[in-house]
Write a sequence for this structure.
């Protein structure tokens, strides 16, 4: 799960898999901007068949937050 | 080399695949990009996924997109920046225009605000500015996602008035994209998101974006000079259900699903798209379908060329491209077999492919989405005459076929042949294979289950059944050999293979099994016969190709012998053989 999330994050943000780890977030990754964040959340929803609440869409700005959410909900 | 991404794949693309492929194509230096393709996208909503998708589709056609995405909700101002030579996409979401005025205000209020007039003026100026562009796509305005409560009759009338204006000002270099077709086909739940409208001003889902692109695709391909011109279509399980070589012309299925498919292809053929048949069959079997099945909507005369033979399909398509003087990128290839689709994609990556779905009831709809790219508003006289011109060309040229790449393709398949020796559990299937197999069947001896059972318990007889697998899946038990041993002589009584696995050199693996077995039991000679039938002409030279010597030839049969049993076969390198059984 953690690995798959990191792969998706890297793909959407146009980075190598090795550039992303569990601590990556919109703070630490330049290409993790608002638009890419939306792409990322939509991709996560599609891959894991989950739906985020509107607040969650805004808040899920780190790999850790995404993994925690998916472990509870996917 | 990267294969052409087919329309079928693009329609079903997932968001992560979009970003992955986009990155791969951008970093692919193979792509010939003499030309850049200038695009400007103007919208009052966030459309960056549309940009990404459009770029992917353009890269896929071999062009380098240069996209300017206008400022968010600044359509009118940005339209003044349009340059000559650009292709412009204007995408206006009616519900969010002027701070969602259409949704938040009653018709009376809108009238008091004079909003209809100001939007009219804006639209009119935008269209005027678009006249500079090489081509413009602009969507029809729609409030359909806000059904019933907000969408009163007077508001519908208001929107209709604006759409009329679009029609009036539309020039030959513009296309009005009717997004109502997206809502009616996919529904607003799947295409319009209130959630992402609120969080990111991005109401259109990826499904909407893909569907929107396909409404524009035929025009965009025309601008790029990349319209497909030829549809190469398989016959068995593609134009009809079943296998004519096995089921006979009277036995093939022409139900509503297959007839719909034929009807669509017929209408494209009538509008000037070239139709060619590429099928592994005996020509006379296919001919018999035309001769005896009146329900066939596609007649022989609808085809520009017919390639019914046993060559690799890629070779037939290469040959047709040369004969018709068309590029391989003008072909769409339709087939039901993963094997054939991948053979074509591996050998000639520029050809677009469509795989017939396993569910016949979705065949028409899935194919129609892919055939949409051929749709054109105006059919020219040249279009209508094209078929005749090409037919003449086909008559002039000879077939030229090379096999080099085909062996590479076979090597990539990871073919795996499992040999079962006197395997009792296969009695049923073995009998069925002798009864049903017509084409790859050297002697066409038919046996009942009880006869197979007798062979199994007889000292003199040996049965090998064969299962075939490759990286696309398991084909099941598809081959059978029955041997009879008399003194030190092995006679091949039956040698047959289902048409599902033809053309993969599996016969060499089967024959090597026979040879190895003969060596093991100390046989000195192997004898075999080819008994001619109306359907097995494709195997008439098989035993010679396998290295046997012809010893007698009559009008109806050939007899062969192999005396030097050494078991060396050069075509076996791609095949993994697993032995199982006794």
């Amino acid at each position: 799960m953690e690995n798959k999330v990191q792969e998706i994050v890297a793909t959407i943000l146009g980075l190598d898999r090795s550039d992303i780890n569990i601590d990556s977030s919109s703070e630490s990754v330049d290409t993790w901007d608002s638009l890419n964040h939306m792409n990322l959340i939509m991709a996560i929803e599609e891959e894991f068949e989950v739906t985020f609440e509107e607040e969650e869409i805004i808040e899920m700005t780190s790999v850790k937050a995404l993994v925690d959410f998916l472990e509870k909900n996917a | 080399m990267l294969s052409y991404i087919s329309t079928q794949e693009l329609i079903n693309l997932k968001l992560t695949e979009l970003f992955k492929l986009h990155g791969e194509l951008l970093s692919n230096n193979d792509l010939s990009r003499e030309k850049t393709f200038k695009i400007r996208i103007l919208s009052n909503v966030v459309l960056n996924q549309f940009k990404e998708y459009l770029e992917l589709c353009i890269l896929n056609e071999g062009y380098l997109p240069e996209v300017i995405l206008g400022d968010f909700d600044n359509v009118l101002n940005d339209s003044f920046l349009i340059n000559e030579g650009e292709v412009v996409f204007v995408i206006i979401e009616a519900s969010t225009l002027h701070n969602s005025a259409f949704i938040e205000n009653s018709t009376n209020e809108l009238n008091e605000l004079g909003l209809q007039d100001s939007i009219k003026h804006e639209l009119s100026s935008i269209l005027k500015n678009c006249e500079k562009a090489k081509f413009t796509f602009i969507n029809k305005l729609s409030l359909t996602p806000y059904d019933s409560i907000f969408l009163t009759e007077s508001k519908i009338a208001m929107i209709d008035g604006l759409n009329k204006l679009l029609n009036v000002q539309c020039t030959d270099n513009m296309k009005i994209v009717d997004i109502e077709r997206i809502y009616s086909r996919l529904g607003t739940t799947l295409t319009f998101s209130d959630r992402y409208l609120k969080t990111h001003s991005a109401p259109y889902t990826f499904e909407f974006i893909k569907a929107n692109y396909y409404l524009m695709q035929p025009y965009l391909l025309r601008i790029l000079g990349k319209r497909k011109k030829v549809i190469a279509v398989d016959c068995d399980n593609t134009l009809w259900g079943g296998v004519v070589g096995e089921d006979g012309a009277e036995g093939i299925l022409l139900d509503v699903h297959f007839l719909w498919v034929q009807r669509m292809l017929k209408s494209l053929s009538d509008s000037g798209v070239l139709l060619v048949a590429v099928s592994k069959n005996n020509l006379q079997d296919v001919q018999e379908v035309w001769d005896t099945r009146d329900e066939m909507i596609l007649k022989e005369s609808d085809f520009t060329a017919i390639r019914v033979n046993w060559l690799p399909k890629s070779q037939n398509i290469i040959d047709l491209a040369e004969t018709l003087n068309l590029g391989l990128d003008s072909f769409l290839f339709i087939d039901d077999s993963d094997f054939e689709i991948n053979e074509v994609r591996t050998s000639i990556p520029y050809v677009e492919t469509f795989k017939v779905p396993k569910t016949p009831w979705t065949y028409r709809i899935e194919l129609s989405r892919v055939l949409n790219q051929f749709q054109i508003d105006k059919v020219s006289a040249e279009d209508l005459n094209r078929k005749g011109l090409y037919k003449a060309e086909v008559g002039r040229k000879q077939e030229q076929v090379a096999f080099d790449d085909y062996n590479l393709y076979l090597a990539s398949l990871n073919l795996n042949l499992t040999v079962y020796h006197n395997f009792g559990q296969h009695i049923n299937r073995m009998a069925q294979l002798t009864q049903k197999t017509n084409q790859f069947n050297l002697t066409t001896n038919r046996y009942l289950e009880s006869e197979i059972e007798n062979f199994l318990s007889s000292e003199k007889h040996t049965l090998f059944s064969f299962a075939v697998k490759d990286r696309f899946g398991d084909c099941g038990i598809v081959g059978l050999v029955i041997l009879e041993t008399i003194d030190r002589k092995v006679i091949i009584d039956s040698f047959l293979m289902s048409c599902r696995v033809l053309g993969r050199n599996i016969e060499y693996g089967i024959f090597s099994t026979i040879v190895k077995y003969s060596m093991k039991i100390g046989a000195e000679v192997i004898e075999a016969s080819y008994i001619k039938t109306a359907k097995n002409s494709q195997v008439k030279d098989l035993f010679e190709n396998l290295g046997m010597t012809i010893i007698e030839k009559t009008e109806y049969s050939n007899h062969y012998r192999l005396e030097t049993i050494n078991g060396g076969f050069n075509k076996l390198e791609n095949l993994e053989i697993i032995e199982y059984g006794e």
Residues 2-73 of chain A form a domain with the Non-ribosomal Peptide Synthetase Peptidyl Carrier Protein; Chain A fold (CATH 1.10.1200.10). Chain A touches chain B through 15 residues (CB under 8 Å).
